[in-house]
């Protein structure tokens, strides 16, 4: 499964990068395949391991902010691996890219 999620503190002002970095650090230290862009962090793995990482990422932000916003989107497709790469490669192929 692939989960794309965004976790942000609320009530701490406009500069939230330091808080978001705490969440992304949890994801990167998990060892699961992941990517971070300007809006979301995507992570790939089995249901329980992915959801555990999301929960810990939220907790990392919550430890420093009393209120947290979580947006989550999941692609649940048993038996598929390396979706983070293969989905992008498919689109690039249709675009005439690599």
In the CATH scheme, the class would be Alpha Beta
End-to-end distance, in Å? 25 Å
How much helicity do the residues have? 40-55%
For the biggest sheet, the summary is: 4 strands, antiparallel
Q: What is the architecture at the second tier of CATH?
A: 2-Layer Sandwich
Low-confidence stretches: none
SS-based structural class?
Answer: alpha+beta
Radius of gyration, taken over Cα atoms and rounded to an integer in Å: 15 Å
Compute the number of structural domains: 1
Strand order of the largest sheet: 2-3-1-4
Helix and strand pattern:
EHEEHEH
Which fold name corresponds to the CATH topology?
Answer: Alpha-Beta Plaits
Question: Please, what is the average pLDDT?
Answer: 94
Tally of strands: 4
Task: Bin the strand percentage.
Answer: 25-35%
Instruction: Based on Cα principal axes, name the global outline.
Output: globular
InterPro entries: MTH1187/YkoF-like, Thiamine_BP, UPF0045_domain
Protein name: Thiamine-binding protein domain-containing protein
Domain Thiamine-binding protein: 3-92
Pfam family, one: Thiamine_BP
Helices and strands, with pairings:
Elements: E1 2-10, H1 17-29, E2 34-36, E3 41-44, H2 47-62, E4 67-75, H3 83-95
Antiparallel strand pairs: 1-3, 1-4, 2-3
Overview of the molecule:
The chain is of the alpha+beta class and 98 residues long. The chain has one domain (1-94): 2-Layer Sandwich (Alpha-Beta Plaits), CATH 3.30.70. The protein is built from 3 helices and 4 strands; from the N terminus they run βαββαβα. The chain has a 4-stranded antiparallel beta sheet, covered by helices on one side. A hairpin with a 4-residue loop joins strand 2 (34-36) and strand 3. The relative contact order is 0.26. The mean pLDDT is 94.
């Amino acid at each position: 499964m692939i989960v794309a999620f965004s976790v942000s503190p609320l009530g701490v002002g406009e500069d939230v990068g330091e808080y978001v970095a705490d969440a992304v650090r949890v994801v990167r230290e998990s060892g699961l395949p992941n990517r971070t862009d300007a809006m979301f962090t995507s992570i790939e793995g089995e249901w329980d391991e992915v959801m555990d990482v999301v929960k810990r990422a939220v907790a990392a932000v919550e430890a420093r902010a009393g209120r947290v916003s979580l947006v989550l989107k999941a692609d649940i497709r048993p038996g598929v691996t390396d979706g983070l790469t293969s989905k992008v490669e498919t689109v690039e192929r249709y675009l005439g890219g690599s």
